[in-house]
Write a structure and sequence with these properties.
Blueprint (H helix, E strand, L loop, with lengths): L1 E7 L12 H8 L3 E7 L12 E2 L9 E2 L1 H11 L8 E10 L2 H8 L3 E6 L4 E2 L1 H6 L3 E4 L8 H13 L32 E2 L2 E2 L9 H19 L6
Helix pairs in contact: 3-5
Bound molecules: adenine.
The site of adenine has 12 residues, from β5 and α5.
């Protein structure tokens, strides 16, 4: 079973959206598993402190290396081969190619940062790989981790209805998805492109490809060679 372990200060945020819809059904059907570990359990002192002020001064708080490492060590076996991903705006941008590769592996360990960051030494000392879901800053890694889990889980065998309903969508072929239409044939004076009603599958495939290229050129020229 593809298994996810999430280290967080807010375990109540899980499964959240991952417990609904496609991923929630897959969770209930045992296609994947989700476990959360509260980093605060290894917190220090009466207040179970997990953070402290940044060395060198500056605003905010930093998650302590010793506390996060103790949490990871308490819950991860030495033989655990899953990648350890630290959600962070500083990380390598998550791509559909990476999502696909993660979904074909044994699962993921995800660490959710909070505050101003995580002590750099635990990133090196526990081989954490920083992953970003985009060039904007969230208040913590929890929502980012739910994005990553959703993207991976929908690709697991048996999760999506039609086996290849993922293969034509945006990014899977390096292009944005072509426009889609359904009934009614005419709506508010707008009709479905004639070619889609022609029944000529070769022509339809060619039209869709051209539309994908056009949309990609207009909206995401950075995706084109
Ligand atoms: N935590 C805060 N912002 C983030 C982002 N953009 N990606 C991943 N984790 C984050």
């Amino acid at each position: 079973m593809w298994s996810a372990t999430v280290f967080t200060l807010y375990p109540e945020m899980f499964p959240g959206p991952a417990g609904m819809s496609l991923s929630g059904d897959a969770l209930a059907r045992g296609i994947w598993s989700l476990e959360t570990q509260n980093i605060r359990e290894q917190g220090l002192g009466r207040h179970r402190a997990v953070d402290d002020t940044p060395a060198g001064g500056g605003p905010g708080m930093v998650i302590r290396a010793d506390v996060l490492a103790a949490s990871l060590d308490a819950h991860l076996a030495a033989e655990d081969l899953r990648p350890r991903l630290l959600m962070s705006p500083r990380g390598a941008p998550l791509t559909q190619a990476r999502v696909r590769s993660l979904s074909t592996g044994p699962g993921v360990v995800v660490i959710c940062g909070r505050f101003e960051g995580v002590d750099e030494r635990v990133i090196a000392g526990r081989q954490l790989e920083e992953v970003s879901i985009g060039d904007y800053v969230l208040s913590g890694g929890e929502i980012a981790s739910l994005v990553l889990l959703d993207a991976c889980v929908r690709l697991l065998p048996g999760v999506m209805g039609k086996t290849d309903s993922g293969s034509e969508e945006s990014f899977e072929n390096g292009l944005l998805e072509y426009p889609q239409y359904t009934r009614p044939r005419e709506w508010e004076g707008r009709s479905i492109p004639e070619i889609l009603l022609s029944g000529d599958h070769a022509k339809i495939a060619k039209w869709r490809h051209e539309q994908s290229v056009r949309l990609t050129r207009e909206r995401r020229p950075d995706l084109l060679p």
